[in-house]
Amino acid sequence: MSDAAVPRVSAAQAPPGPLLLAFSGGLDSSLLLHLLVEAGLGRRLRALHVNHQLQARSEDWAAFCRTRAEALGVPFEEIRVSVPADVNLEAGARAARYQALTERAAGATVITAHHRDDQAETVLLNLLRGAGVQGLAAMSEHSWLNGLPLWRPLLAFGRVQLEREARRRGLEWVEDPSNADISLRRNRLRHEILPRLAATWPGAPAILARTAGVMADAAALLDERAAEDARALAAARDRLPLEGLAALSRERQDNVLRWWLDQAGAPPPSLAVTGQIHGLLRAPADREASVTWAGHTLRRYRGDLYLLHDRDLRPLSGPLDWRQGHEPPDPGLWRLLPGEGEVTLWVPPGDVQLRPFAGGERLRRHGQHQQVSELWRVAGVPPWRRRQWPLLYQEGQLVSVPMIGVADGVDRRRCRPWQLRW
């Protein structure tokens, strides 16, 4: 888009439903607030200011944002966050900001004021990190981040255009001094490297942004192929069959693994971790090998590759009492929902108790006391699930085991099925 174009937002661009503007009070979001209201979107718009509490004037900026939003009739909220001292400041602030936006979105699409120069910076940063096609695609106008819908209506406009329009309107905005700190990588790109590129190659930011669009098209094709391969493999949300995966080329393996991990919300593995994953795929079938990164673990078990979050490896603690007529306990590791499912627990009438598996428990079935561990092993229940799934007791006796059934003497016709979901 020409630098002479006047920044505008059209209601036709907007996704349906409520909207939440990430409102810092800076030039970009201040102008965007006005453009959204002028587009007739004010009635379904809220403004959220994330106060990182990192600057002496943080409170003044929050008050400024409140005044500007309320003057336009836009509901305003401030949320305060803290950035841990032991993490990278840029990454920590961004993570805290998006966590706050996720918590407050409540079904709304989050709007950010990213523009074309931000896009160019992101392409360069990702290029210098050795990113692939997905990383070089950078940002798109409409996207998702960990289940959070995002809209970036200013992505086609450059910083010069936005500032010119803001000054024409006589708008005021806050200036964050940290934006001038060239010890931060993005700021160094913004203030030193991109201006030098533009001096030699006029229009460099626009060219880089155009490259992002080309890469986005390529990324969409890769995602489409990965989804086809995942369907052919009968992949589940947390499980990928290894035999079918091994039959694919190395490139298609990488592609479907990347897509599968992204769909599950796992962060992309580094090159080093990717190498470990390929070693995991080649490991002997009888080994329960694993690779761990960023709070996630890939683990082999019986011909399948499982994706586990840290919470999936936490054992159940208990016991948990469940009184008849009350909602089932929720330990945060799984939920019990009414009806049969992939994993069903049959619950007899009366008060019961859920206990963690400790090893050595026996369930009387078909006239024999059988080891629960052996029943689960034969059924293919992975070891980490065994440490999380509950055993159901009544009057001190083991009466029901998930995926296995009920003990002798328990009339299953009088039991209610509950599906175990995690």
Question: What descriptors fit this protein?
Answer:
422 residues; alpha+beta; six-stranded mixed beta sheet
Describe this structure in words.
The chain contains 13 helices and 20 strands. The strands form five sheets. It has a six-stranded mixed beta sheet, with helices on both faces. A five-stranded antiparallel beta sheet has the order 11-14-17-18-19, with no helix packed on it. It has a four-stranded antiparallel beta sheet with strand order 7-10-9-8. The mean pLDDT is 92. The two termini are 47 Å apart. The protein is 37% helix and 21% strand. The protein is α+β, with helices and mostly antiparallel strands and 422 residues long. A hairpin with a 2-residue loop joins strand 17 and strand 18. It holds the Pfam family TilS. One of its GO terms (molecular function) is tRNA(Ile)-lysidine synthase activity.
Count the DSSP helices.
Answer: 13
Strand portion: 15-25%
Percent of residues in helices comes to: 25-40%
The strand order across the widest sheet is: 3-2-1-4-6-5
The counted number of beta strands is: 20
Residue-averaged pLDDT, rounded? 92
Q: Main β-sheet, in a few words?
A: 6 strands, mixed
Which structural category fits the helices and strands? alpha+beta
- How big is the Rg? 27 Å
User: Which spans have pLDDT < 50 for at least 5 consecutive residues?
Assistant: none
Envelope shape:
elongated
Beginning-to-end CA distance, first to last residue = 47 Å
